[in-house]
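Minutes, structural biology subgroup

Action item carried over from last meeting: produce the structure token record for Antibiotic biosynthesis monooxygenase (Pseudanabaena frigida). EB confirmed the sequence was re-checked against the source entry. Recorded below for completeness.
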Amino acid sequence: MLNSTEMIDIDRENIPVTAIITHIVRKGREQGYEEWFHGIATAASMFHGHQGVSAICPQDRFHPEYVVILKFDRYRNLKNWLESDVRREWIERLQPLIEQPENIKTLTGLETWFALPNQKTPPPRYKMAIVTWLAVFSVISIVSPLLAPLLTKLPPILTQLITTGIVVLILTYLVMPYLTKLLKGWLYPKK
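Output recorded by EB:
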């Protein structure tokens, strides 16, 4: 029989997880890094539970940091990939291309909306809750009236399903990345 602590750990393990991995690429090695990235991304996609990988390339030559966003369906599957011999071989190939060891942050839940490079911990929960609440309210206030004429003939539950699905996509890919950068000073105050 499981005790309550074990139940919590199992529940936590069964939720989607995102790993944010940063690499500082040596000057002049960018093309080699991008080729390496495509290779390791293909290898990762073969692992059970893989849900996608993307990279954010540096915006200028003064900050040569690549940010890799790796998603798995649960922590156990991410851990299997991170500790695999296949990944270990790819990381060995990476060493001549980077200036320092990679940095890996693992996030679940709302934390992924607030992930920024060079931030080791998520913002306080109350700040995440406030920003999320304001973002959800704003997007629903705009999207609902726009969709209402298109969805009038559908049952209310289906209307809600479509509306919330569109709201989540807009929040995930447009609004939250922008708000996180905009409110960085408040979310992550300098100590």
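Discussion: The CA atoms of residues 20 and 69 lie 5 Å apart.
Next step: EB to file the record with the rest of the batch.
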